From TrEMBL:
The keyword Repeat does not apply. It comes from the Eukaryota. Its main location: membrane. Coiled coil: none annotated. This is t-SNARE coiled-coil homology domain-containing protein. It comes from Megalurothrips usitatus. One of its GO terms (cellular component) is Golgi membrane.
């Protein structure tokens, strides 16, 4: 309450309460209550609209972002399954063929490094 409202409400008055200052005090309180009620109503309206916007954003993210994430994870799972099946096939295959390939790869690497160092 402002200072002049407090002064208007604290003034002396008759015991029966029919004094105009008491009426003015009640009227000022009612006006202040109405103003506070309107301010609260505006804040509630703002919070309601904000919560509706948040709900719409959550629904959008659930549909679009989580849907694409689910698709990406399914694709990654498929690629991982393929890689694991290839590894299992390599493990079950005869080992002498892969040893020869690794040996030839090593020789080629060492030869290229030797040529690079030698003719630099």
């Amino acid at each position: 309450m402002s200072a002049w409202r407090k002064a208007a409400c604290t003034g002396p008055g008759p015991a029966d309460g029919a004094h105009p200052i008491g009426y003015l005090c009640r009227n000022l309180r009612e006006e202040e209550n109405q103003a506070l009620t309107h301010a609260l109503h505006d804040r509630v309206r703002l919070l309601r609209s904000l919560s509706l916007e948040i709900g719409a954003e959550v629904r959008y993210q659930n549909r679009s972002l989580l849907g694409t994430l689910d698709d990406d994870l399914e694709r990654a799972d498929g690629m991982l399954d393929k890689a694991m099946s290839r590894v299992a096939r390599v493990v079950r295959a005869p080992q002498h063929y892969y040893v020869v390939v690794v040996f030839l790869f090593s020789v080629a690497c060492f030869a290229s490094v030797w040529c690079f160092v030698r003719f630099r």
